[in-house]
Design brief:
- The chain is mainly alpha-helical and about 750 residues long.
- Among the domains are: about 240 residues, no CATH class; about 90 residues, no CATH class; about 100 residues, Tetratricopeptide repeat domain (Serine Threonine Protein Phosphatase 5, Tetratricopeptide repeat).
- Helix content is about 70%, strand content about 0%.
- The chain is elongated and about 115 Å long.
């Protein structure tokens, strides 16, 4: 048996003392320069101030925490964050809210500056951990990787959590390494707290906690006995448990159910295992049936829950919703074990492969279009270096060189175990560049061992091991570039995301251009056609929008939503007969489509078929009684039928469900004025004015009510305001002239 010896010092030592810190300072300057350059570049991208997908959800949540305004973004349903268990981990939204609280809501530049500052702090932490494990040279290499790793810089510029995760994971490993050198309960407690904070950002780290606990027992057993590791394990679990406890308690208080951090795990599992799963796309096969929408968003989750409840036939607790999706995934695995195994294997290969897998955004094209990021190192370098280090470490130990015991070896085992467990935690769900960036610094940390050893051989002029292992490193780097699992980034998807960002910024012309480019690249891109149609519609280009939806019918003839949009646009183009036909097709496909019933009511009203219109609006309200527009339009038909009292009730219902409904206030005022209730009418008009001060209709109707009460001066002022807003409005000029003549008319003796 070969005897293990101590690692011999290098022939030429790496920078020491002040020189080492000077080198670190240089690395930090490089990191600062790269981040500054990228931030300048990022400032001119369309999504800088228009976050998308998960980032948009984080932004909404954080802003609501600061302002108290929980109104969802236009076009999105209420995600019901305040009244349900956390559907996504709360850690990052609360971090972002802290930034907004200091810098102001939606301070996008401040958030990115803070995250890039934390990225530089991570460089220092990486240096300290690398130095503790393998010496100053290794520390400098790891710090350099973190400072220049394109994905670290990229995600520091996103309203996403990876930059925090990297910091927390390196911090936890550092504390655990210190515990291995000198075990103490407080170090174990701190490690538990760091992992708990990590879990508030990404709960799957909880799967690594038992791994860390087992490692602690193993370390204690190697030294004095496993029992000595029990107090450390207790402290670790206590730290993690106390950290996530506020989220757990809050979830129980709000939802009366046990949800440790968030309830998104089971639906992500269902995304991972279903007939449409591809290993990387967040796609729910029956999303439309459950929510009425085609595009996945966390804003839809409460609607999805209601869809599940409709299927089950009763109200469900969060745990029961989780069980539903978990059961769907389990059923698919049982019925299609081979495909499930293929999906898992594909995710593993994609996770370790060279391509940047998309999640929310096509990061491959974001990187390739960046003059800063395209030149920086990425995952393959870290993976190849780590593989070389492990091979070299094993080979040197078998040769009796290098430490076989002690904190260094134990920490390497820890990093491998935690990294492996964290990697495995994603395999049942989906993989993406956003998820693996957390592990890249750990790989670089392991990889620094081999790079430092190669440098030592070079300094000592030991050419044989240098050339042999150097060649092995080149081969491994080449292998890390090989795409084993097929994956092609979608340029059409990149243009689609840019279009969405422009649309969120109300630049619909630029949005339409991006959507058109996406369709040019991928004619069957249905979502791009839908969003292009929406962008065209918002520009008032209804005919062009209609053409896009009609083109969609070639791909989705059975999609009720497409027929509904065709009907809505036909109404906008004053084609009520064609609109009616399209809307009836939508209802034939989906009888519970409340908006289709409501628009059908408008089409029937425009054709003078008032009784049928009333029935259509009542059908819409029976499905969705909170639809303020349906209440308002029902009121219009009831007025036409001469049912003034019922119409007033409908207008009041519209206002109850949407107090900002200007038209409902104005039309209710008209009804009240017609009944001689001028004071009440004036109150409604003034409400409408407060909501929309640049609308002329409330002022014009207010003038009539004031004149009827003999308040000529205020009536004239209101008419003057009408003419300021709409100078060519002849009725206002005529009314103002009539008031002038009336005021000049001599009083009767």
């Amino acid at each position: 048996m070969k005897r293990t010896t101590r690692e011999q010092p290098p022939a030429v030592r790496p920078p020491s003392g002040g020189r080492g810190w000077l080198a670190l300072a240089g690395i930090l300057l490089v990191g600062l320069g790269l981040r500054s350059a990228y931030l300048v570049e990022l400032r001119h991208t369309p999504d800088f101030a228009a976050p998308l997908a998960d980032a948009a959800f984080h932004d909404y949540w954080a802003s609501a925490l600061v302002t108290g305004d929980w109104t969802p973004p236009p076009g999105n349903p209420d995600p019901a964050i305040r009244t349900t268990a956390y559907l996504r981990p709360p850690g990052y939204p609360y971090f972002l809210a802290a930034v907004y609280w200091v810098a102001g809501p939606r301070s996008y530049m401040a958030a990115r500056l803070v995250q890039m500052g934390l990225g530089l702090v991570t460089c220092v932490l990486a240096y300290g951990l690398g130095r503790a494990l393998f010496g100053r040279g290794a520390g400098l290499l790891v710090a350099l990787f973190v400072a220049t790793h394109w994905a670290c810089i990229y995600y520091e510029g996103e309203l996403q959590e990876p930059c925090l995760l990297v910091l927390l994971l390196l911090g936890a490993v550092w504390v655990l390494h210190a515990w291995a050198r000198q075990p103490s309960a407080w170090r174990a407690l701190v490690a538990g707290v760091l992992l708990g904070v990590f879990a508030l950002l990404r709960p799957n780290i909880l799967l690594c906690v038992p791994v860390v606990a087992a490692w602690m027992i193993w370390v204690a057993w190697r030294r004095r006995g496993a029992r000595n590791g029990v107090p450390a394990v207790v402290a670790l679990l206590l730290g993690a448990g106390l950290t996530i406890a506020p989220a757990t308690i809050r979830n129980y208080v709000v939802a009366r159910d046990l949800v440790l951090v968030s309830s998104n795990g089971p639906i992500n599992l269902y995304i991972g295992y279903n007939e449409r799963s591809d290993g990387y796309t967040a796609r729910i096969p029956d999303l439309y049936e459950l929510s009425g929408e085609n595009a996945w968003s966390w804003f839809l989750y409460p609607q999805i829950v209601r869809g599940v409840e409709a299927r089950v036939g009763r109200t469900l607790r969060p745990a029961e919703v989780a069980a539903y999706f978990r059961g769907r995934a389990a059923s698919y695995i049982r019925e299609h074990p081979w495909h499930a195994l293929q999906l898992t294997a594909r995710r593993a290969l994609l996770f370790g492969g060279p391509m940047e897998v998309a999640n929310n955004k096509e990061v491959h094209f974001d990187r390739s279009h960046s003059n800063v990021l395209r030149w920086l190192p990425g995952w393959p370098l870290a993976l190849a270096a780590a593989a070389l280090s492990l091979a070299l470490y094993v080979a040197r130990r078998r040769a009796g060189v290098g430490p076989a015991n002690g904190p260094q070896y134990e920490s390497i085992v820890l990093i491998a175990a935690v990294g492996g467990a964290y990697f495995a935690s994603f395999l049942p769900f989906l993989v993406a560049e956003r998820f693996r960036v957390t592990l890249a610094p750990l790989l670089a940390l392991i990889g620094s061992y081999a790079l430092v050893q190669l440098a030592r051989w070079a300094q000592a002029r030991e050419w044989r091991p240098l050339c042999g292992w150097g060649l092995a490193g080149v081969v491994l780097f080449g292998l890390a570039q090989v795409r084993v699992a097929a994956y092609t980034p979608q340029l059409a998807g990149w243009h689609m995301a840019r279009g969405d960002a422009y649309a969120r910024s109300n630049d619909f012309a630029a949005a339409a251009a991006e959507y058109a480019r996406a369709i040019e690249l991928k004619p069957e891109y249905l979502e791009a056609r839908k969003t292009l149609a929406t962008a065209l519609g918002r520009q008032g280009r209804a005919a062009e929008a209609l053409a896009q939806y009609e083109a969609l019918l070639a791909y989705t003839p059975q999609e009720a939503g497409v027929h509904h949009e065709i009907g809505r646009l036909r109404l906008e183009l004053q084609q009520p007969g064609e609109a009616e036909a399209a809307l009836r097709r939508a209802l034939a496909l989906r009888p519970d489509f409340s908006s289709a019933h409501a628009h059908l009511g408008t089409a029937l009203r425009q054709q003078g078929r008032l009784d049928e219109a009333i029935a259509a609006f009542r059908a819409a309200l029976s499905i969705d009684p909170n639809d303020a527009d349906a209440h308002y339009n029902l009121g219009l038909v009831l007025v036409a039928r001469g049912a003034a009292d019922e119409a007033a009730q409908a207008y009041r219902a519209a206002i109850a469900h949407n107090p900002q409904h200007v038209e409902a206030h104005v039309n209710l005022g008209i009804l009240l004025a017609a009944q001689g209730q001028y004071t009440a009418a004036i109150a409604e008009y003034r409400q409408a004015q407060a909501i929309a001060p640049n609308r002329f209709e409330p002022y014009f109707n207010l003038a009539a009510a004031l004149a009827a009460q003999g308040q000529h001066e205020p009536a004239a002022a209101a008419l003057q305001r009408v003419l300021e807003l709409k100078p060519d409005f002849t009725p206002a000029r005529q009314a103002l002239e009539a008031l002038r003549r009336q005021r000049e008319k001599p009083a009767e003796p």
